[in-house]
Amino acid sequence: MTGRIHIDGQSIPFAQGQTVMQAAEDAGVAIPHLCYHPDYEANGSCKMCTCKIDGRQVSSCTTPATDGMVVVSNTEELNSERRALAQMLFIEGNHHCPSCEHSGNCVLQDQAYKLGMTALIFPNFTAGRETDASHPDILLNRDRCIYCELCVRASRDTDGKDLFCITGRSNNKGLAINSDTGLLKDSGLSVNDAAANVCPVGCIIKKRQAFTKPIGQRDYDKRQVHSNKISPSTLPELVKEPGEKVSVATCSLAGCFGCHMSFLDIDERIVELVEHIEFDRSPINDIKTCSAEVDIGLVEGGVCNTENIETLREFRRSCKVLIAVGACAMSGGVPALRNSIDVRELLEESYIDNVGVENPQIPTDDELPHILENVSPIHEVVKVDFFLPGCPPPADAFWQILNDIVEGRAPDLPYDLTYYD
Amino acid sequence: MTSESDAVVREQLAAYRRDPRMVLQILRKLQLAQNHIKATDIDIVAESLNLPRTKIHALIDFYSFLHNTPRGGYDIYFSDSITDHMLGSRESAAVLCEELGVEPGVPEKDGLATVDFTSCTGLCERGPGVLVNGIAIDRVDIERAHEMAALIRAGTPLEDWPLEWFVINDAIRRKGPLLNMTVQRGAAIERAIELGADGVIAELEAAGLRGCGGAGFPTHRKWDICRSAGAGERYVICNADEGEPGTFKDRALLNCEGCNVIEGMTVCGITIGARKGFIYLRHEYEFLRERLDRRLQRRRDSGKLGRNICGHHGIHFDIEIVMGAGSYVCGEESALIESLEGKRGIPRIRPPFPVTHGYRGCPTVVNNVETFAYAAGIAADGPGFFKQDDAKRGWKLLSISGDCRSPGIYEMPVGTTVGEALQACGAEDVQAIQVGGPGGTLLASHETERELSFDDSNTGGSFMIFDHSRDMLDVAQNFTDFFAHESCGFCTPCRVGTKLMANMAEKIAAGHGARLDIEQMQRLNKLMTQASHCGLGQSAAVPILTTYEKFPEAFRQRMDDVEYKPAFDVEAAIERSRQIVAEEAQS
Predict the structure, then answer these.
(1) What is the pLDDT of residue A222?
(2) What single-letter DSSP state applies at residue B329?
(3) ipTM topping 0.85
């Protein structure tokens, strides 16, 4: 059958045997997707391409087009579901964009940007899957696998090698290598194989080729401008007398202070800013405790020890609006890379085995904070009102979000101010 | 590699004709024979069937009862279904673990026994249900657990355990047309041949028989579509993967009326023009397999199965039993077919549906055990069979379990009210009823006017009753964990969503829940319902949210009225650090 289908009101043709996704791709209509690839049979597992087709929600990559079909795709309802799916994939694996070699070339990251994902609302699963670095040219970082099965299909259908296989079920899925040792080095996978090139995320990557493209020239750096309006209902009202300033407190937990540095990159605009705000507790003015009532708290860094928890709770108690700033506060970030390592091993590495340690011993002073088993994003410990993504968020993003809140607007971070890396 | 082990695997490969579609059957036999599937056997199976080794591992990982590390010589699973809990399964398991000195799921160090938990074993009216080396034992109370421990410690072979433990009787409490059926063997076949395919389909339509597994698709239409779908082979599959927690009526049907089911399948085969049928029997019902096999053989011997059935030239139909290996999703017809083809039980992309593209891509009728049994009755006696005693919408078998005087099988007219069912089984002090299993409908005690039918409270048979002594949050958490455990993991919303739901249910149950957790569960539910690949993900978040809606006090008892609570227990998260520092301070 051939004919026409209607996607979001636009009439497009389809050829015999095409699915809704194929027809849309041919017509240049973008439907978000991860596991779909034009070269392979549809898998239908990621569910990102879910559309309302003739009234029912189904995957557009597996639905055959029929004449007169009505497809609804680009609505806030569907996009918010897709955003939630992206959030699910981010917390299921370890997707820390700032420390990922594939950042900028990653389909998951790009989809999340386009869908306006600015926060990871679900608690992280802290995956600790085995990495396979045995192959001379290819690295398999299973923590980043999203089970799209593209490598499985590419190896089977294009390379004729059938080297990859999905194992397990429910939350215990895995990606196995078909070789005598189960290792990539013995599999016969070559860098030129389709399977080595098809991974949409940073799970199967080539060694020695990371960060070769500068930021700005990576596959998905061609940013489009669109708005990520945050629901205004979540904005607590900051009632101010005319001329009264909004108070702002800032701190860094397990972070690098890079977000603070970026904040200061608003440069001379800070003069304009301090006409409307005054700093409360902050490394900027070296005030060590929050006042009883602060309007806005900006928290950088993840939560790695009991001191972080105490600081964070103080911020939550004092601040009317709490904003998670940067990748570490939002997802644990770089410090969270230690999450698959046992606490004792961490302490021994730091205080006993580390180069240049004198008088090696694990400190036992009661005054010292205890470290948590995992580094967590701050929203797993206190309620967070807004998220300012980026590693670090650009100065303009600080400028924007503070101005929005000061003027009582719902914060609006345009696409080009939303960075995960 | 020992030659003895080699012999076992070679024997199984030969028994299953080295057919790659039978790989799951071969693996299951190896598991039962050797307590696990040895790496060397995996190599042999992979090589002999020309399958990648990873595919074998992927099967072992997918199915609950297959393992590639050794289990104990006595491999014991307690049913983790809520009704078994209510009958004391956790307590019995604790006794057994303590007496044997084992942790759940971890084999004893000398390999004597493993004590583990599994999803519903289908012995709900006679729980706690247990599987020992694949064989069912009912009513494993604390006393029986002590006795089992003694037998295990003495190394008594299973054959020498008390025989009565293995006799699974069926509590048939109320009989209707099916359970009273006294049709002569072969009568339905004879009449079906006489009526012809059109006639059989017309009678099924007149009877109004709909799929009894829960989906309720009109049986006559399924058979008709299959019969008309293209040329070539077609297949009949009996879905005996009765995995819905709280359902055990198929077990009883196969146990006592197995011939009706076989007769119904044969009628279907003749009607749609299939020559081959399968009974996909769940692993937990291994104890039924031998008897069913004997029945199939008797029917072959008497000409009711095989070539030229009942002397009718050119009418051939035979049935093979294929076993499941522990996966709830395989109750979904397309996942079942995948499993039957020796693959992981992941529901297929539909359309096309199995009725046109089923087993080996051929048109296939997949019907529930009960559907085939009723179809046999209708084929033998006409549409009136299904509407006896003025039951306008026909009859349905209910599996009633939980808090009532007489749990068991009840054959009741479709449209029976919840109140009538409660009265029939002697339920008192009712707090709630779960109709249709964990993904079904939760009813409060005042909803007794609700009907058990496709149009109201739909059920494939499961009807679980909870009295006021039960904590409904416990019940909901059990269901939520069940879905997280049984998700096939194929699609994102279900794979991640069921785990998130289980984590949040645990958080709330532990007293760490807050209002925002409920809100998040509600949002997740919407996503899972809308975007999941199959019914499991679509219904997985429903039980806990319906419980919140209908039994809010169960939540209030464990939740402070606060907006937010941390996602994890901070005290527990620093325990490891505290421990290390304490150890270091001492040394």
Answers:
(1) 66
(2) G
(3) yes
